[in-house]
Amino acid sequence: LSDTPPSAHLIFGKNSDRPRDEVQEVTYYPAATHPPGSVLGCTYIQIPQVEQTHAVVLSKPAWMWGAEMGANDQGVCIGNEAVWTREEVNPGEALLGMDLLRGNNNGSLDGAGCPITESLAV
C-alpha cells in the first residue's frame, strides 16, 4: 500500500467465525501512558504492561480481553484467523490468538504496534 496516495480510502473487512449468539462489541480505547511495572490483565493471564499504548478501535467478543479485528492510530489494521492444528495444547492457561492481536494492535506487547513479542507467543 506504499503507492496509495494520502487522499485514497482503504476498506478493511473480515468475516468472523465466532458463535452466532456471541456478543461482539465495537469499542474504542484511547492511547494511554501506564506507570512502570504495571500489569496487563489479558483473557486468562497477566503480563507486563508497556508504558505507552496506541489508541485502537476493536471488534471483540464481550467476554474476553482479546479482539477479532482492530485498527490503531498508527495505521495498523489487523484481523484474527483461526489456525487448526494437530499440535497438542500445552497444559495451563496462556495468551489467546485474539489477545496477541489486540496486544500487537495497541502496542501492549512490545510498544512497536505490530511485531509479535516472540517470548509471549509460545
Automatic annotation (TrEMBL):
<dbReference type="InterPro" id="IPR005322">
    <property type="entry name" value="Peptidase_C69"/>
</dbReference>
<dbReference type="GO" id="GO:0016805">
    <property type="term" value="F:dipeptidase activity"/>
</dbReference>
<dbReference type="GO" id="GO:0006508">
    <property type="term" value="P:proteolysis"/>
</dbReference>
<comment type="similarity">
    <text>Belongs to the peptidase C69 family. Secernin subfamily.</text>
</comment>
<dbReference type="GO" id="GO:0070004">
    <property type="term" value="F:cysteine-type exopeptidase activity"/>
</dbReference>
<protein>
    <recommendedName>
        <fullName>Secernin-2</fullName>
    </recommendedName>
</protein>
